[in-house]
Amino acid sequence: MNKKILALSVHPNLSGNFTNGDIKKSFASNIILDELESHSEITIHKLGEEYPDYNIDVKREQDLLANHNHILLIGPIYWYSLPAIAKQWLDEVLLYGWAYGSEGKALASNTIQLVLTSGSALSEYSQDDIGNTIDELFIAYQRSFEYCGMT
Length: 151
Prior knowledge:
Strand content: 15-25%
Helix content: 25-40%
Mean pLDDT: 90
Order of helices and strands: EHEHHEHEHH
CATH superfamily: Flavodoxin domain
Number of helices: 6
CATH topology: Rossmann fold
Number of domains: 1
Radius of gyration: 16 Å
Structural class: alpha/beta
Low-confidence stretches: none
Number of strands: 4
């Protein structure tokens, strides 16, 4: 079976619209996505560009997930988490009866990997510096995906 990969970007400003002093363009996420685009088995899906109004098309997102075996959730670390659209996406797309619950098995055979970017060095994410490691900061995402049967 050919594994299909969904690269799901949650960066809200990949295009780098610098109007009104906005300098939050993600160079790191763009480098990652540019590299992934050269692989035909990878579908690139940019939530920030797709849903600038945050009005997520739940059915479309569920169809994308159902048609891919592996998900790369790509995003920057914003205030010890991912951008707001990532949490909204989880809340609206990973629904009871579809993603979890006694009949919610749609994602049970999928794998997921967080791909995080940061303006800080990895060494700063420690008990001695900010008080938490990367794994500790993102435990809620890990547990949510595990609850949906993803590894």
